[in-house]
Amino acid sequence: MPINEFSFIENLKLKFNYSDPDFIGIGDDCAITKNTHKQQLHSTDCLVEGIHFENFDENAYDIGWKLVGVNLSDIAAMGGFPSTGLLSFAIPDKINLSALNSMIDGIADCCTKYDLKIIGGDTSKSSGPIFLNLAITGYVDNKPILRDGAQVGDDIYVTGKLGGSLLSRHYKVNPRLKEMQWLSSFGINAAIDVSDGLLGDLGHICENSKCFVTLIENNIPIHDDAAKLIKDLKQFNKTPLEGAFTDGEDFEIIFTVPNNKSEELINNWPFNDKLYCIGNITAGPDNSLELKSGEKIKLEMKSFEHKF
């Protein structure tokens, strides 16, 4: 049904209303914030109906949560803290108002959980699919964690099990903000979030750090139910390991740490979710996978890629 733009904006203003004197949010031509941090982080992600999600009416809350979560995962990968966000929609006439409100609830709940303030944005009518975008700002207390810091001899870790997007876990993104803030203080060399698949995203670290990797098959953590589903449903035409390598949208964090700090890392890790050491950084000449048999095979560091 058609929605009145200005009434919709007023509802957003009520939903994202903050008493913090450092922010002037929705309602003026620009939002106003105070910049007290030397190093700010900026990121943006969009979700497009038919590309990133289907069945909006059924999944609206989770889609709203995901829009925030995928952006926060980028902040997490840098060891940062989220601050503010600008939210933009392009919405068709046929939108279900109840579902739209449910999506806003998902956005608001994720923002509340991870302390992100929505301070502005834009709304428009769409003649095509639903288009959602969030641009966020954050900051770092320590040196930001980049992709280009991996060193030969580093151990490679991932913050959780992989392959979960197959079971729609990609909708309920839980960004590893606290874990990466802790790791930033601990001291790690490089990091990236797993949005396009383990191999492809780890490949970005290799490319930026000018290094190679050896992964250990026995150490790759795969969700048990995802592995079972792949085995049970033959149409996937891949093994559970291949799914963990290439499916993407796990939104865990891959990071590297000097080998001589690994024992200290594991002994002092303060979080319930287990860390997994999945391999190490090498000088090459190739990327490789050490199979359960002990044999090493060459790895192609490929990932999901949008084709335009």
Explain how this protein is built.
With 308 residues, this protein is an alpha+beta fold. The chain has two domains: 136 residues, PurM-like, N-terminal domain (60s Ribosomal Protein L30, Chain: A, 2-Layer Sandwich); 139 residues, PurM-like C-terminal domain (Phosphoribosyl-aminoimidazole Synthetase, Chain A, domain 2, Alpha-Beta Complex). It contains eight helices and 13 strands. The strands form three sheets. It has a seven-stranded mixed sheet, sandwiched between helices. Helix 2 packs parallel to helix 3 and helix 2 packs parallel to helix 4.
Salient structural properties:
308 residues, alpha+beta, 60s Ribosomal Protein L30, Chain: A, Phosphoribosyl-aminoimidazole Synthetase, Chain A, domain 2, 2 domains, seven-stranded mixed sheet, four-stranded mixed sheet, globular
Lay out the secondary structure.
Elements (H helix, E strand, L loop, with lengths): L4 H11 L7 E2 L7 E2 L6 E9 L7 H22 L3 E11 L5 H18 L2 E9 L5 E9 L15 E4 L18 H10 L3 E4 L4 H12 L2 E5 L7 H9 L7 H7 L6 E5 L4 H7 L7 E7 L5 E3 L5 E3 L10
The CATH superfamily of the largest domain is PurM-like C-terminal domain
Major sheet: 7 strands, mixed
Strand content: 15-25%
Count of DSSP strands = 13
CATH topology of the largest domain: Phosphoribosyl-aminoimidazole Synthetase, Chain A, domain 2
CATH class of the largest domain: Alpha Beta
Domain module tally: 2
- Taking the alpha carbons of the first and last residues, their distance comes to 31 Å
Going by helix content, strand content and strand pairing, the class is: alpha+beta
Give the CATH architecture of the largest domain.
Alpha-Beta Complex
Order of helices and strands: HEEEHEHEEEHEHEHHEHEEE
Rounded average pLDDT: 89
**What does the overall shape look like?**
globular
Low-confidence stretches: none
**Number of helices, where a helix is a run of at least 4 consecutive DSSP H or I residues:** 8
Strands side by side in the biggest sheet: 8-10-7-11-9-12-13
Q: Assign a percent range to the helix content.
A: 25-40%
